[in-house]
Amino acid sequence: MKILLAITGASGSIYGLRLLEELLRAGHQVTLVASQSGQEVCRYETGVDLGDSEALKLLWNLPDAPVTIRNVTDLWAPEASGSAAPDAMVIAPCSMGTLGRISNGISGNLIERAADVMLKEHRPLLLLPRETPFSTIHLENLLKLSQCGARIIPAMPAFYQKPESLDDLVNFVVGKLLDQLGIEHSLFQKWGV
C-alpha cells in the first residue's frame, strides 16, 4: 500500500513517528511530508529530524525501508495530483490550522493539496486532531471534513487495556489508525479477543 503520512505542528509528533515505524515494518511504501512547524515540534518533543530519511530508517534499524521525504512546498510532487494519488493519507498529528484550511478547500502546501486530492478522489483521508479543548470552529471543521469522507481519529487513548507506559497509550492510538487503514497489527489487544 502507498501511504502519504503528514506530520503537522500540533503536539503529539510521537503518533506520526510510531505510525511511520509500523508502516515501514509492515513493508508499506511511505511518503513523509512535514510542515515547518511539524518539523520543529517533532525535533523539540522527540529529538528526531524529519528531514533525514536515512536517520529515520536507522532509528528503527530498517535500512531498506521504502520511505520518501517530500518538501511541504513541493506542489509538483506526484501526491498533489489525483492521477498519482496514494492509496491513503494520514495526518498525524493534525493541527487545527491544517484542519481548518483543508475543511475550507485551501491548498497552500503539499499537505493541504494532497488532502484535497484524497477528498475529491474519495480515497481514505485519516486525521488525528491533537487539540484540547475543541472550540466550536474546530468542531464545525471536523464535522465538515467527516461529512466529506475524512475519518477523524482523535488522539484519545483508552484505559480498558490497563496501560503501563506511555508507549501503551501511543500504541493504542496508532493501532486505531492502522485499523482504519485495514492493516493488521499487534499494538494492543482488541476488546473481547
From TrEMBL:
Residues 1-181 form the Flavoprotein domain. Dimethylallyl phosphate binds at Y160, K176. GO terms for molecular function: carboxy-lyase activity; flavin prenyltransferase activity. FMN binds at G9, A10, S11, S35, S95, M96, G97, T98, R130. It catalyses: dimethylallyl phosphate + FMNH2 = prenylated FMNH2 + phosphate. InterPro entries: Flavin_trans-like, Flavoprotein, UbiX-like. Keywords: Flavoprotein, FMN, Lyase, Prenyltransferase, Transferase. Gene3D superfamilies: Flavin prenyltransferase-like (3.40.50.1950). Its EC number is 2.5.1.129. PANTHER family: FLAVIN PRENYLTRANSFERASE, FLAVIN PRENYLTRANSFERASE PAD1, MITOCHONDRIAL. Flavin prenyltransferase that catalyzes the synthesis of the prenylated FMN cofactor (prenyl-FMN) for 4-hydroxy-3-polyprenylbenzoic acid decarboxylase UbiD. The prenyltransferase is metal-independent and links a dimethylallyl moiety from dimethylallyl monophosphate (DMAP) to the flavin N5 and C6 atoms of FMN. Belongs to the UbiX/PAD1 family. This is Flavin prenyltransferase UbiX.
